[in-house]
Description:
The complex is a heterodimer.
Chain A: H1 17-22, H2 27-33, H3 37-47, H4 59-65, E1 75-80, H5 89-96, H6 98-112, E2 116-121, H7 126-141, E3 146-149, E4 154-162, H8 172-179, E5 203-207, H9 208-220, H10 222-226, E6 236-243, E7 249-254, H11 259-264, E8 278-282, H12 302-307, E9 316-321, H13 326-340, H14 346-363, H15 369-382, H16 390-415
Parallel strand pairs in A: 1-2, 1-5, 2-4, 6-9
Antiparallel strand pairs in A: 3-4, 6-7, 8-9
Helix pairs in contact in A: 2-6, 2-9, 3-4, 3-6, 5-6, 6-9, 13-14, 13-16, 14-15, 14-16, 15-16
Chain B: H1 25-35, H2 47-58, H3 63-73, H4 77-86, E1 98-103, H5 106-110, H6 113-124, E2 137-142, E3 154-156, E4 159-161, H7 169-179
Parallel strand pairs in B: 1-2
Antiparallel strand pairs in B: 1-3, 3-4
Helix pairs in contact in B: 2-3, 3-4
Bound molecules: flavin mononucleotide (FMN), iron/sulfur cluster and FE2/S2 (inorganic) cluster.
Flavin mononucleotide is lined by residues 51-55, 57, 59, 62, 79, 81-84, 168, 170-172, 205-207, 210, 388-390, 393 of chain A.
Amino acid sequence: MEPLLTAHIAEPDAATLDFYVKHGGYEALKKALGMTPEAVVEVVKASGLRGRGGAGFPTGMKWQFVDRKSPKPKYLCCNADESEPGTFKDHVLMERNPHLMFEGCLIGCHAIGAKVAYIYIRGEFFHVQKVLEAEIDKARAAGFIGRNILGTGFDCEIYVHRGAGAYEAGEETALIESLEGKRAQPRLKPPFPATHGLYGCPSAVNNVETLCNVPLIIEHGAEWFAAIGPEKNGGPKLFCISGHVNRPGTFEASMDVSLRDLIYDPKYAGGMRGGRALKAVIPGGSSVPLLLPDQLDIPASFDGIAKAGSLLGSAGIIVMDDTTCMVWAAQNLLHFYKHESCGKCTPCREGCDWLFRILSKIENGDGQKRDIDLLLSVSNNILGKTLCAFGDAAATPVLSTIKLFQAEYEAHVREGRCTVPAPWRSGARVGAAH
Amino acid sequence: MDYGRGHHKSARGMPEEGPAFEYTPANRARLEEICARYPVDQRKSAILAAVYLVQHQQGYVTLNAIQHVAGVIGCTAAEVEEVVSFYTMFYTRPVGRYVLQVCRTLSCALMGAERVTEELSKTLGIAPGETDQQGEFTLLEVECLGACDRAPVVGVNDHWHECQKPEDANALVTSLRAKGPAALTGCYLRVEK
Ligand SMILES: Cc1cc2nc3c(=O)[nH]c(=O)nc-3n(C[C@H](O)[C@H](O)[C@H](O)COP(=O)(O)O)c2cc1C
Ligand code: SF4
Ligand code: FES
């Protein structure tokens, strides 16, 4: 498949309005504004586009649920929080192809009856934010954003809202809270954002990459889009590959590409660094179960990876070679989760902290056999018992590493030390944190 | 703010009182511009931006600044304080001229981030979470910055420095001293084939 979302990203002025318009940009907006909102929603539904933020929920359906008959204003929130470890695709899209996202936002606003889209960008993407704000101003001056867009009478503004360091702000209702100027802590659902979202008004929260696909669908049609890749997993997809590979990076492919090709094909990540053996892969951002080397001959699609017992999630593929200690990997991720837990519900706030402590104890060589059972017990008391999906995400690295690498945990306990002390780790930390 | 170490979300330390605080006219005008992006009855949406402006003006956030923000936004000081204490990018203590934020999450750690922190710590003579005596550098460990293909990533104030090798930690410090932000790589800003 030829790249569609990232076709021009290597060209120096790809991010500029002039470049975008020269390459057919904002034609889809023109076309969409000639259609009724219902017709736009129908096309997106027919295309089968599934959300690229993590859950893979059908975008057309999400837009259809937005209560357009409500007398209140409607809002579109573009989720540019991108904080899932191992994920860096939205960042590339925004920095190199921002007008595609704006065009997707505008078409989305037309579809749900919104006059404002807020792009919620994580605070650490400040250099990206500057690109976005400069390009929004240019698009406004050119009549693509603002009042009476393209002379059609459609008014729509796009604003950037900067976060300030919080993974949880990526969860859709926490994002809305943060947009309202509060702590990024999620709301109890239902009610869903489609009826009670930003400022209590009907809203849709869509991921950056999701919105970037919308202009393509409007331009080329639902059938064309659905025909790219396997059934129910249509359209171009960005894969982020990081860790122990030769060519880490963002790669665009259809979802019939196999996980093995993404890791080994010279077109993509180009194989394992130094020719070492692959030990495990996290295929969808830090919060999904691990896959083993013999599980890679599967399509890297939502359904393909689910069938293998994991999830495509945010398509952040983290590759680990045989120098990686799996207890350490779990400890590293649980540091992330205990640090990022928003603290609203007890199993997650306290549980993540305990998981990290127990993992540290084992990794440092002070663990006992019963600590492994304790890890399972704490994890199972988080799983399914929290307010948002963060809890399950946090328990997963622990459960998954114990399931697949229990022997490694036991060796740590038996030998009273880390049994896989990688040379790339800090000597001071391998087993020395007593 | 505890600079990311031992952080627990139920911990809540109050910022210090600090010197008297008032926005400069330019920052005040900038804040009103930002408030105009939200519905008129939703000025609270601008709290995060308002706190960033405080930090921009004074380097860190104090109780006096929180009170001033509350007055300008039209909310309670508690509503501002809960935002300040939640988000990791708001500092409630003075930081150095360069805040080095080493990403410690998995993809960066797999590429040697622990050693980057170790080397920076040695070079600067401070532990993560600390600022040097001259107020030149603060060293922090942060979580995934969203550029994991350029691991290990070090955020430097509002810029990025990517593919930082542990053995070059010293060079980063030296060139920051000599050239300022021009020393940083931010690979994405450059086009490569
Ligand atoms: C803890 C947590 C963090 C999340 N972080 C992000 C994120 O950084 N970016 C994102 O697009 N979606 C994130 N999501 C998913 C969002 O809640 C939401 O499903 C998504 O933005 C919907 O957009 P989509 O339908 O286009 O995928 C996160 C979810 C959870 C539970
Ligand atoms: S599961 Fe964790 S992140 Fe989600 S609401 Fe509860 S404490 Fe917050
Ligand atoms: S893990 Fe360091 S940038 Fe993602």
